[in-house]
Amino acid sequence: MRMTDLAGRVAVVTGGSSGIGYATVELLLDAGAAVALCGRDGVRLDGAVAKLRQRFPAARLLARRCDVLDTAQVEAFAAAVEAELGAASILVNNAGQGRVSTFADTSDEAWLDELQLKFFSILRPTRAFLGQLQGQPDAAIVCVNSLLAVQPEPHMVATSAARAGVHNLVRSLATEFAPQGVRVNGILIGLVESGQWRRRFEARSGEDLALDWSAWSARLAHKKQIQLGRLGLPEEAARAILFLASPLSSYTTGSHIDVSGGLSRHA
Questions:
Q1: DSSP 91-118
Q2: N or C terminus: which one in the chain shows less Cβ crowding within 10 Å?
Q3: Could you tell me how far CA 225 lies from the centroid of its own chain?
Q4: Rounded to whole angstroms, how far apart are CA atoms 221 and 217?
Q5: Is 202 helix (H, G, I), strand (E, B) or coil?
Q6: For the segment 62-98, what is each residue's pLDDT rounded down to a tens digit?
Q7: Buried b (16+ CB within 10 A) or exposed e, 91-110
Q8: Domains in the chain, CATH or no CATH each
Q9: Residues 267, 262, 264: CA angle, nearest 5 degrees
Q10: Residue 158's CB: how many other CB atoms inside 10 A?
């Protein structure tokens, strides 16, 4: 059996209807896992499921609309997964965008919103699925985090601080869950192609109007000093997630994989 053969495994991906989450669902299905995904946007979720079923017609796939900050919704999602697919052995925590703000213009309410999103989008799903994970061989939790956790940006002060907390949380959970047979790891992403970056491209002005997406994103990568000279692709982050979720990383816990194309400047 190939190490990346996940037949018989049940994987859960939060924020799985687009971007890195969707790319991760594709890779998990391709590896043979049964996959449950959730998202807040019902229309986007339905569209994602339609594409997935077209590509993987025989796959065991479950999708539920769920706000990961709502305890009751997350618990209902976890119960549905176990009832319809079986106990989960893989949980991918993937939720939350960045907040552009400085210390001077970040209100108390904005701080609380950012900290709640970054922490509880991990805490609530982890709490809901932990009982299922504990009973599975080589169970794994993977948290999608940002390079901001170790390389903060002054214009993203709240997000940088919250991401640093999540970096520590992954290590803490890894230590606590190791005796229970559950590995916990994360990835640190840099600039990855997303709807957010596409919207910024569409809103470009001035001399940037003459640039197509390829040229515009290459200029952005140069400005940000990304050594590989381009933005990352969702599937590139998803491959790192798949590695950490699979037996390929069976002796790895409490760690983070840098997926930033050389943007990282930390030791």
A1: EEE-------B-STT--HHHHHHHHHHH
A2: C
A3: 24
A4: 6
A5: helix
A6: 999 999 999 999 999 999 999 999 999 999 999 777 8
A7: bbbbbbebbebeeeebeeee
A8: 10-192+232-259 (3.40.50.720)
A9: 35
A10: 22
